[in-house]
Amino acid sequence: MENPYAGHLAHTPYTSLYHSPTGMTITLLAKKGGVGKSTVCLLLYEAFRKAGKSVAIQDWDAQGTSNKALGLLNGQRAEHGQTYDILLIDTPPSLEHAATAAAVRSADIAIVVTSPAPADLWEAEEAVRFVQAKAPTAVARVLFNKVRKNTILGRLLSESSKTVEAQMIPVNLSARECYQHAVGQGWAALDAAAREEVLQLAVSLMSLNNTVESEQSIETV
């Protein structure tokens, strides 16, 4: 059988990730495709870059969406031996692939991306348990993507979040057409409301990382 990851992942040493030892490593994962994981990865990349951070993406999704987008945006792919303020890892849409497990083990923060749909939430719960099993020290959080706030599912987010054994990121990403265009056009494709939403998400993650680092410092004293 032909290896679907040939030419993209086949020669990548999963056990030696391009980990940023002095920065923050954020792994984005989902059990299945269609929840917008790669789009979220690109949006975060653009937000952190706008904030003046050195940021790179390690794309291990066979579709290569993040790598293709970086090529259009003159963006930064992760390079072995390089250090970044923030390293984003885009994983295959599978919990069974070795790359997903390796990326989770290298994460400071593991973000499970999901939509508010019940079927997606069931898959998100499995992904959270996967993170907790593979990387107990990583901070696991769930991000609601493609949220339509004026719908029943959108209004029931707080109730839906109780079905998942991990805290929700307080910022949700709305279902915006401009987010799709951002994959090819970057920050310029986003309107003011979208930019504010994505920047709030980036700030939330930076604050979370700072809190974790402070707690770790206290524990080592």
Description:
This protein has 221 residues and is α/β, with parallel strands linked by helices. The chain has a single domain (24-220), classed as 3-Layer(aba) Sandwich (Rossmann fold), CATH 3.40.50. Helices cover 43% and strands 14% of the residues. The protein has helices at 37-50, 65-73, 98-105, 118-134, 152-155, 157-161, 177-185, 192-220; strands spanning 24-29, 55-59, 86-90, 109-114, 139-144, 167-168. The protein starts with 23 loop residues before the first strand and ends with a helix.
Topology:
Blueprint: E1 24-29, H1 37-50, E2 55-59, H2 65-73, E3 86-90, H3 98-105, E4 109-114, H4 118-134, E5 139-144, H5 152-155, H6 157-161, E6 167-168, H7 177-185, H8 192-220
Parallel strand pairs: 1-3, 1-4, 2-3, 4-5, 5-6
Helix pairs in contact: 1-2, 1-8
Percent of residues in beta strands? 5-15%
Tell me what the CATH architecture is. Answer: 3-Layer(aba) Sandwich
Secondary-structure class: alpha/beta
* Rg, Cα atoms, Å: 16 Å
Structure keywords:
single chain; 221 residues; alpha/beta; Rossmann fold; six-stranded parallel beta sheet; 8 helices; 43% helix; globular; disordered N terminus
